[in-house]
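pasting for ref
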Amino acid sequence: MLKGLALTPPIVGRISIGKVVERNGKRLPEKDDEFTLTSQVQNKDGWVPHPLNETLRQANTKLRQIPVRLLFDDPDLNMRASYSLFDRQTGRPLCVGNGETCRRSTNSGIQSMPCPTPEGCELAQKGCKPFGRLNVRIGDDDELSTFVFRTTGFNSIRTLSTRLRYFHAVSGGLLSTLPLELRLRGKSTTQSHRAPIYYVDLTLRGGMTMQEGIAQARTDWDARKASGFDQMALDATARQSLGDGMFEESAEDSVDIVEEFYPDAADQEVTREALKSGVNRVAGRQVQRSTSSLADKLTDKLRINSGSDSGRNCVD
């Protein structure tokens, strides 16, 4: 058994709501308005889609709901979130903390230090921000394999963490057998220049009440236990395995994570300008359509009134 290596949940695919695109000679993250399921293989066009990516779509509609189950009953095992800072040159984690303590890579090795959150940390000004990873099961082919959704979005991290704790509480801790689904939601803010931004929510399957969901979770949990499936032992093993490592991300994964979730300040400015430009173009089209529509309405009204007057003159 290797020491210092975090044993993370087995991953067979990725869930994303965006991609990395080429813009102005730079590779930049670009958000999307639907889910995409990919394998862990890349080619020249990016991540190769997972077969479930098309299976879950209905009539070529956008994929905005994904039926899932969780691997663990412990909310903190399903969703791990931390304040994370990466070295943009090597992709390696530099500092990972929870707001109280952190593990930081120094010239003397990995050291434990207080974590004052990014707002109160001088090192954090180099790009530290919340980073969350949610592991979910999709399909029934392998009950111990997962898809991972990674995000630095505050709305997704807060919403998913809250939902997991709420579902854990109301179900009596039966998260692993609750019939759930990931759902994409949108909102607009001043910071987004009124453009919609999308985040991920976790709900019961569509059309199912809380009572029905909990009853099904209880039935499935009892059936698994009767078959010899030890969920408590699985949670305990996962908890110890994750805690064995200094950092969760491997060196090979970190490079892609930095590119997608930790663009430097110059890249972020390019992305913001593209966003504002896109919003202005949309707003311009909306104004043009509104003006054209108003002109058409006035012309139609004038034509109708003119015709009515002519009709009255003929009758008179």
